[in-house]
Amino acid sequence: MRQELMSLPKTLAEDVARNLVMVAKLLDDEPEQAYQYARVALRLASRVAAVREAAGFASYAVGKYSEALAEFRAARRMTGNSDLWPVMADCERGMGRPERALAMAGEPEVQKLDRAGQVEMRMVAAGARRDMGQADAAVVTLQSPELASHSIQPWTARLRYAYADALLAVGREDEAREWFAKALEADQGGTTDASDRLAELDGVEFVDALDPEQEADDALKPVAESTVEESRADESKAEEVEIEDVEPDLVEDDEEPEAVESEIEPEDAEAVEPEADLVEDEVQDDDAEDLAEDAEDAEDAEDAESAAEARSEDRAGLPEKDGDDS
């Protein structure tokens, strides 16, 4: 790759190299960002085989199998190398064409692959068999000297894992568990989830003690419960205080109407009004009797009228006399 970049102008070569470094750095953990860097490098130097290969792997990581296959084919034409043959066949699987992937497994290019490449091709072929509904054939495809070998190679864990998964697909659970355990023994770099698959078969559920979300949930749960209890206690205390404050008021309100009713009752009020009317009637009757007596004593009508007028004047002057006496 360095020789290919040296053919570019210095500034351009540095820019391309920086983007390729970011692709390699982010490919496993941040494939989307790696894909973006690969597209930049591809625009800068599309005629460099290393750039086309990096762009192919970035596209493959994000599931863009058609783009990946195109980039791998371009890189293979530029170099004439067959190392990308297994991943090209897997792109055919990703595009929903397992028959083509299986056909590629029987091509002469497979014989040009090193041992690691041939193991990769075998795993791709087994996957194509399973895609086609041939689960038992997938198990047979993976049975090879490399699988039976006790030596640990970079591809050993993945091969054993694929074999265990194929066994599980045909219902051979006990054997699958055994091979998942073997895959875990060989998986020194943690490239598979063999431990999780073993736990799943054993019915064991693991909780990540370092999971920040789980720690946050555990930290908040007691606080939430204590808050609820405190709020309930505060509500009960508030209700008690309200009851203590309200009861004296209720007693006072009940006593005041009783006192008023005892002093003046409706029956007594109605009894007073008729007495006032009787007093007025008696006064009027007394006035009439006095006038009649005055009329009899008068000798003529004129004297009677004058006596009546005098009587009325005398009655009109009575309040003034009372006021003076007081």
SSE sequence, one letter per element: HHHHHHHHHHHHHHHHH
The outline comes out as: globular
Percent of residues in helical segments? over 70%
Number of DSSP helices?
17
Number of DSSP E strands? 0
* Overall SS class: mainly alpha
What is the terminal-to-terminal distance? 134 Å
Largest sheet: none
Residue-averaged pLDDT: 77
Proportion of beta-strand residues: under 5%
Low confidence ranges:
221-228, 243-284, 316-326
Please supply descriptive tags for the structure shown above.
326 residues; globular
What does this structure look like?
It is a single chain. The chain has 326 residues and is mainly α. It has helices spanning 2-6, 10-26, 31-44, 49-61, 65-79, 85-94, 98-104, 115-131, 135-142, 145-148, 156-169, 173-186, 194-202, 212-263, 266-297, 301-316, 318-325. The longest helix is centred in the last third of the chain and has 52 residues, at 212-263. It starts with a helix and ends with a helix. Mean pLDDT is 77; it is low at 221-228, 243-284 and 316-326.
In short:
By secondary structure, this protein is mainly α. The chain has helices at residues 2-6, 10-26, 31-44, 49-61, 65-79, 85-94, 98-104, 115-131, 135-142, 145-148, 156-169, 173-186, 194-202, 212-263, 266-297, 301-316, 318-325.
Task: Please write out the topology.
Blueprint: H1 2-6, H2 10-26, H3 31-44, H4 49-61, H5 65-79, H6 85-94, H7 98-104, H8 115-131, H9 135-142, H10 145-148, H11 156-169, H12 173-186, H13 194-202, H14 212-263, H15 266-297, H16 301-316, H17 318-325
Helix pairs in contact: 2-3, 2-4, 3-4, 4-5, 5-6, 6-7, 6-8, 7-8, 8-9, 9-11, 11-12, 12-13, 15-16
